[in-house]
Amino acid sequence: MEIPIFTVDAFTNKPFEGNPAAVCLLQNELTQDLYQKIAAEMNLSETAFLQILNSTDDFHSGSRFGLRWFTPTNEVPLCGHATLASAAVLFYVKKNANATLVFETLSGELYARREGNRIVLDFPIYKPTVQDPNEVKELIESAAGEVAVQDVRYCAVTKKLLVRLPDTCDRSMLESLKPDPQSLMQSDSTGKVKGLILTLKGNPQGQPGYDFYSRYFAPWNGVSEDPVTGSAHTVLSSYWSEQLGKQKMLAFQCSRRGGELRLSVREDGRVDIAGEAVLVLQGKLTL
């Protein structure tokens, strides 16, 4: 069996920046074990599996596909950058001309459309609630050291903990933090965290004018630090929209590779997450 496979750097227009995702094109379902083995072999934060749902469709003309995401250790219910990568393969490689692509996923229907040189993802938005810092004190200290954090929120749906650094900090402070993955997992006494967001208010008056910065860590899912995380921004967009009183925001994730996301919070309880993507590899898996 041969499976077409692609590697796409998402949320960037330059190779080797943004977040790389593998995208596999499937005619039929695989066994659960095989999905996981392929993702482990690719060894990227996520491998996406796109599947044709209607036997009369193909990747050139179809508008609705099944989509699943696997880290090297497990399946996840939502992944932004691998969805962007999947849409990029369909739009740019397969020349799919549909105005909107629909993906059936564990998080419901997700949508992707083209706007100029960007792809816009239509995702659900998740509002985090106030979290008592004392309940996650050790986890915060493992992540931020002695920095006195300004706010702590938790999203029960996504199991992500959001930790806001004080406004007196700058981007270099956020980038200098070096959380140890093992320490993060061991310091979570609640057992409810599957992802840690560190975030900081930006400077929208500067150039290029980022409204906020972030970093994302998910060792609980086998990902020490994710370079650019669309799913984290379903939480971040809700939080910062409320904090800044803005519906349209420009965000930057401050990993070593880095990536830019344009966000538009909508009144229907969803968020548009826009970014660029670049194809860096294509081939076939032989199984």
TrEMBL record:
GO terms of molecular function: isomerase activity
CC annotations in GO: cytoplasm
Entry keywords, A to Z: Isomerase
Catalytic residues, chain numbering: E46
InterPro entries listed in its UniProt record: Phenazine_PhzF-like
Gene3D superfamilies: Diaminopimelate Epimerase, Chain A, domain 1
Domain of life according to the entry: Eukaryota
Record's keyword annotation contains Isomerase: yes
Pfam families named in the record: PhzC-PhzF (PF02567)
Similarity comment text for this entry: Belongs to the PhzF family.
Protein name according to UniProt: Phenazine biosynthesis like protein domain containing
